[in-house]
Amino acid sequence: MRSYAAGRAALAVVQLAVLSVLVFILTSLLPGDAADLRFTETLSPEQVDRLREQLGLDQPAPERFVHWFSGVLSGDLGTSLISGGPVSSIVRDSVGATLVLTLATLAVVVPLAVALGILMGTRENGRLDRAITSVTLALSAIPDFVIAVVLIAVFSLKLGWLPATWIGSSLLASPILLVLPVTVLLGRTVCLLSRQVRAGTITALNAEYVVQARRLGIPRRRLLLRHVLPNAAVPGVQELARTGDTLLGGVLVVEAIFAIPGFATALVDGVETRDIPTVQGLTLVLAVAALLINLVADLVCNRLVPRTELLR
């Protein structure tokens, strides 16, 4: 287990280095810069050139990358070209809402997907299995923004039961603000995970050791919890890692739709103003989060079923 964890951690470091290069290249390809977009109406071309020099935007790309990456290694994400403050402060200010939304979604997704998956798997090809499978397939085909628009139209505009946005509201004062965003994020993620848990449950129930345990008279509850669930959860955990990027992307879309002051707002503002250090810092944090999700999922799978290490 330790050697496997060390190998995965080393691979994650290499992936992070590659991602850092890609993040810098892609953000550098954005047309224009902060000087062009922010100050061309008030400054002359000569003054804009001097400003670009002050901001370091006139330096060659390799030199800017070395300066930025050396700062990242020391924990410094750079300085915002617009506000003049550290990018780490922008990350800290915007990460709260995004983190709450993500954790709230995971807290509902995981137990719900496991319960539905086991329920379908233990009733393979039954009416309940076919009904839940049909619903999950239909939901997984609907984009998040469509679900969000429908929910807002029904529960906010028509019925008036739930708030449509977070504007002028505080999450601590109104936890009900999470209902619609979390519901939107649940749709596709629960569908994908529950189907994987279902497949794992069916495979585990047909395994020879489970069949023999039934013959020995082991109670069904104990059989499911101690023998079937750990093996059935592995495909679900792996699918959760694969959908981690999708979940993070869904969180950004939901934040934009419901006007949640999180990563999406800060990222869109940074792109619009060509605040490259802010965009780079936020994108890098999202990339690190995706890497950590995949790393933790692999370690959990290896812990649940140690033989998976031998199959890699």
From TrEMBL:
The residues that cross the membrane are: 95-119, 131-155, 161-186, 247-268, 280-301
Keyword check for Electron transport, yes or no.
no
- Location in the cell: Cell membrane
Question: Is Cell membrane found in the keyword set?
Answer: yes
Topology in the lipid bilayer is annotated as: Multi-pass membrane protein
Start and end of every ABC transmembrane type-1 domain? 95-297
Q: Which residues form a coiled coil?
A: none
Indicate what this protein is called per its UniProt record.
ABC transporter permease
GO BP of this protein: transmembrane transport
Q: Which family does it belong to?
A: Belongs to the binding-protein-dependent transport system permease family.
Tell me which UniProt keywords the record has, alphabetically. Answer: Cell membrane, Membrane, Transmembrane, Transmembrane helix, Transport
Q: GO CC annotations? A: plasma membrane
Q: Name one Pfam family in it.
A: BPD_transp_1_N
Sorted alphabetically, which InterPro entries does this protein's record hold?
A: BPD_transp_1_N, MetI-like, MetI-like_sf
